[in-house]
C-alpha cells in the first residue's frame, strides 16, 4: 500500500468513517463518497488534511482513503505499512466475527491513547484495545501505555508481527503473530504469547493458533492473562531446527492452565518430599552395592598382594643395583647442571655490570628517540589518562629514575605510573613488573613485553610513530 493511504476518515456530517465496514461506520454507502461531485469534505483524523475515497490496485481491490496532494510530511496514519494495515483489518474482522463491534483508530478524549482497533462488547460494558506495535518501544513505555488504557477501563493486547519477539513480549498482555502462510491462506497465526501449562512436565509450553480464533477466545473470556510464577518463566521450543529458550513473565492462557500452574506449585513440597524419599532409597541401594563391590575388591587386592610380594623378593637384588646406578648418574647430572648454572650466573653478572656502567648512555639514547614536542605529547596523554581516572597527576621534573629503568615516575596522591622505562635496562629494575607503565605506541610496548614486562601492566597511549 502507498504510504498516503488509511482506512479511516472524518466526514463533516457522519463523523468517523471506517472503510472496512459495509456502512462505513456512519450509515453511508461507498457510492456516497466514491467519485462523487461535489466531493465530500473528508479529512484525515490524524493530521486533518483532506482525503478522498479510493480503491487499491488489483488483485486486492480494497477500499481506502488516500491523502490529497501536499499533505503534511508527518502523519502517523499515512506512514503505516501495508503489513500494519492488513493486521488491523484481520483483527477487526475477527472481532466482528464474534459479534463484537470493531472500530479503527479510536482515540481517548484527552488524547492519552489511540487504539489501532477498539473492540466493544454488544452490551457496551467491555472494551478491548488491539494495538499493532511495529516500532520499537521500551518495556517501561509500553507498561505506561497499558496503564493509561486500564485507567479508562480498557483492556489491551499488544500485537507484534516481527520475526523475533520484542523485549516487551511477556511483560504486558501481548502476542507475536506471523503473516498468512500457504497452509492457511489469508489467516494470521499467533506464534508467541499464548501458552498452556503442562502439568505433567511442570512447565509452560507455547501454543500456536490462528489469530481470528485467538481474538474470539480473548473477547469471550476463554483465555486470560496470567503471571508465570518464579521458577516457571523459562520456556523452550524448537524454532527452525534450533533449540530456543525464552523468558516470559505473562501469558495468555486458559483459566484451566492458570489454575494448573498454581496447583502444581502448591504440590511442589509433596513432589520434593517424594523425590527425596526416592533419592534416599536409591542411595541406600547404591551404598549396599558399593559395600559388596568393595568386599570383592579387597579379596582381589589381597591375592594380588601375595603375588606381588613373591615377585618383589625375586627383583629386590636387581632393583638395588639399578638404584645405585641411577643415583650415581643423577649426581653426575647435578654436578654438570651446577657448573652450567655457575657459568650462566657469572655471564649475567658481567652483562648487568656493563649495563650499569652504560645505563646513562643507554637511557639517553632511548629518550633521544623522541623530540621535545613528542615528549610533551607523551606526558600530556598521561595526564589526560590520570584525569579520566580521577587522579591529579604530577610528572615532576620529568627526569628518568634509575630504579625504574630510567622511566619517569608520575605521582598523584602516590605513584600513579612510570613513563617510558628503557626496555634494555628493565633487567636492572625488577620492581617494574608491579607498576603501571605508559608507552607511546605498540612498538615500545612490544619491546617491554620482550624483556618480561607483563602486557597487562603496559598502557599503550596510541600516539603516532616519531
Sequence-ordered SSE layout with sheet pairings:
Elements: E1 5-6, E2 8-11, E3 15-18, E4 51-55, E5 63-67, H1 82-97, E6 101-107, E7 114-120, E8 127-132, H2 139-151, E9 154-160, E10 174-178, E11 189-192, E12 195-198, E13 203-206, E14 209-210, H3 211-220, E15 223-227, E16 234-239, E17 242-247, E18 250-254, H4 255-266, H5 268-357, H6 359-367, H7 372-388, E19 408-411, E20 415-419, E21 437-439, H8 442-450, E22 458-460
Helix pairs in contact: 1-3
Mean pLDDT over the full residue set: 87
- What's the SSE pattern? EEEEEHEEEHEEEEEEHEEEEHHHHEEEHE
Percent of residues in helices comes to 25-40%
The N- and C-terminal alpha carbons lie at a distance of 61 Å
**Global morphology:** flat
Percent of residues in beta strands? 15-25%
Textual characterization of the structure:
- The chain starts with a strand and ends in a 6-residue tail after the last strand.
- The chain contains eight helices and 22 strands.
- Strands 6-7-8-9-10-11-14 form a seven-stranded mixed beta sheet, with helices on both faces. It has a four-stranded mixed beta sheet with strand order 19-20-21-22. It has a three-stranded antiparallel beta sheet with strand order 1-5-4, with no helix packed on it.
- Among the domains are: 1-80, no CATH class; 360-460, no CATH class.
- The protein is of the alpha+beta class.
- Helix 1 packs across helix 3.
Question: Characteristics of this structure?
Answer:
alpha+beta; 466 residues; four-stranded mixed β-sheet; seven-stranded mixed β-sheet; 8 helices
In a nutshell, what does this entry contain?
The chain is α+β, with helices and mostly antiparallel strands. It is about 40% helix and about 20% strand.
